[in-house]
Structure formats: structure tokens, C-alpha cells
Amino acid sequence: MATLEEKYAALKAELGAMGRVGVAFSGGVDSSLLLKVAHDTLGGNAVALSASLRSVPEFERREAAEFCRANSIEQIICEINELELPAFAANLPDRCYHCKLKVLETLKTAAAKRGITQLVEGSNVDDLSDYRPGRRAVIECGVASPLLNAGLTKAEIRELSARLGLSTFDKPAYACLASRIPVGENITEEKLRRVERAEEYLMSLGIRQMRVRAHNDLARIEVTPESIELLAASPIREELSHRLKALGFRYVSLDLTGYKTGSMNPESV
């Protein structure tokens, strides 16, 4: 089995052989490492391509831009309204495929205008065992996955990120806001903003790992075990209920099972 150093070398070798590359960059743990290594390897020939989506919260877009500024990396931002995609708005089980396809096609077009023919994205080995309908779009669009090709796992990506001094090394996973809405329930701008503002409030309490699942007018809050105790205690419990009801939720519940990634995936519903 390859060591982390060997995987890192393989990652740099693949990126270096591309000559000029556009990195599909969201600001998450995976794409941040990929962009950093691409820029370290290729310099100005590595460009960040980011999609500004309705289902991505403002803080994620802000942190992605700051990452590029801090590392002197050019960032190209493409505005996309995924709510205009019928399959996305209807929240079909393969919603992510249609969104990812639109995003990658748009980023490829933007890259081509810069003379960049190779687009790369941040899938890793662990993604292969998760429900990832967007993976099909990656393959169809001919987008390379250097982290996956190098055999890097999520834990190894975090370790490499820490070694390179990236602030994202311990950043919590944060899937798009549409993942908070049950499959089959229509996705609207109003619902996305409601969830975004609810989660912003939880972040203001110092809670990093959480989800506010929106079941029509019921908010189901998933947090880690230690945060369950925090939210259940007065006076935070009353304030939390008041804040979320003011956003339009009629009921506010705390999921005693706690935070679970992908709990709204079709096989988990």
C-alpha cells in the first residue's frame, strides 16, 4: 500500500503533467488541498473556477474567495441558478447529478475561454462508498479527479492539509443546503435561505458540525452529542425555538440521534 508521501508525490506528478489546469473549487477540504497543490506545482497556470449557486451559503463563497486571495490564486466565479433545472427544483433522487452536470459544463466553458482544456475536481477514495450521484457527471464531462487517482482518503487529505498549513484541514463537512430538504419535496429559494439563516444562528453559538433538516414547516436539528446538551438547556432552548420560528418554521425539534452525514440520502430516508 502506498504511503502518504508516495500519494502526495503521485498527486503532484499528475497535476504537473497537465501543464495548465482549472480547479473546480468550492472552498471545502478536498478542493482546497487540490487547488493548493496545483498552484504550488503549476503556479499561475493553476486557476480556481467556482460556481456561485443558490444552494451554497454565503459564508462558503466568502471563505473560498478569501482562500484564493490568501494564496494569490486567480479565481473565476460563474453565476449559476440551479433552481432553473427542473430535476433540481423537483428534488429528484438524482438531483445532484443534474446540478453537477450544469456546474461542470459551465466551468469547462469558462476554462476554455482562458485556453484551459483540463478541469479537475476534488473527489477522493471515500466518496466511492457514499451516495454520490454527481460522480456520474464528473465522468461524463471528462473531468479528472487527481485526489482519487492518487488514492487519497479524506483523513489523508486532512493530514496533508495540516502539513501544508491550510486552515481548512479541520473544516467540518458542509454539503449544499438542498441536502437539508427531503427528496421529493420541492426546493425553493425561500426554503434554502430559511435553512441558511437557521444554521448561521447555530454557528453563532459556536456549533461547527450540524445540520438543520427542513421537513416542510418542521426544523429537525442534528448536532454532535455535546451540542445536544447545550441546545436543550435554558435559556438557549427557548431562544433557539424563537429564532427558528421567526424564520418560518412552525415546529422546532432536536434530533436525539445526533448529527449524521447523508441522513437525507434516498436510502437513509
Could you characterize what this model shows?
This protein is an alpha/beta fold and 269 residues long. It has two domains: 4-170, Rossmann fold, CATH 3.40.50.620; 177-268, Alpha-Beta Plaits (2-Layer Sandwich). It is built from eleven helices and seven strands. The strands form two sheets. The protein has a four-stranded parallel β-sheet, with helices on both faces. It has a three-stranded mixed β-sheet with strand order 5-6-7. Strand 5 (210-215) and strand 6 form a beta hairpin. Helix 1 (4-18) packs across helix 2 (29-42) and helix 2 packs across helix 8. The longest helix has 19 residues, at 95-113.
Summarize the structure.
The chain is an alpha/beta fold and 269 residues long. It is 45% helix and 13% strand. The mean pLDDT is 94.
Supply the key terms:
single chain, 269 residues, alpha/beta, Rossmann fold, Alpha-Beta Plaits
What share of residues are in beta strands? 5-15%
Terminal Cα span:
36 Å
| Share in helix | 40-55%
Q: Fill in the CATH topology of the largest domain.
A: Rossmann fold
By DSSP (H or I, 4+ residues per run), the number of helices equals 11
CATH class of the largest domain: Alpha Beta
Morphology call: globular
Biggest sheet layout? 4 strands, parallel
What structural category do the secondary elements indicate? alpha/beta
The spatial strand order of the largest sheet comes to: 3-2-1-4
Mind telling me the CATH superfamily name of the largest domain?
Answer: HUPs
Please indicate the count of domains: 2
Q: Ranges with pLDDT <50 over ≥5 residues?
A: none
The string of secondary-structure elements, in order, is HEHEHEHHEHHHHEEHHE
> What's the count of strands?
7
- In the CATH hierarchy, the architecture of the largest domain is 3-Layer(aba) Sandwich
**Rg from C-alpha positions?**
19 Å
The whole-number mean of residue pLDDT values reads 94
